[in-house]
Amino acid sequence: MVEIFKGGIPVIPTLERWYEEFKFEGYGAMIPFIGIVRAENGIDGLSFDLYLPMLNEWFKKWANLPDVKIMMAHSFGDVKVGESSFLCAVFTKHRKEGFKYLEEFVEDFKANAPIWKYDLKEGKRIFVKERAKKLPNAGILSKGE
Description:
Elements: E1 2-6, H1 11-22, E2 29-36, E3 45-50, H2 52-63, E4 68-80, E5 84-92, H3 95-112, E6 115-121, E7 124-127
Parallel strand pairs: 1-4
Antiparallel strand pairs: 2-5, 3-4, 3-6, 4-5, 6-7
């Protein structure tokens, strides 16, 4: 399941809620990943746009894996340095397969999820084209731009 939060994600309450929801479902491991906005290049934070219908469509391939449950949360809008913008947890019977799925999920997310980020500097939202993803057949960030 995908959860969306305006601003930074409340990490501990979200992880606790997921743990409580699935602790009796036969999983032997819950492996979380927490993405934290880090201070670099003089930014005050990051800002995110997302397109939820496409994000949910992207997530479908991860939602129906046998014996695996993946939960995900992401921010939209502004997230300050030190806050979390991305959170996920993989539930599996065994830790080794959990770590494998976590790595694959996070890498696929970084490469393919329809989320765009901006730098926040001095109260301004700055688009960084080099980090942006093209949407297939959408004309966004086409070669002509």
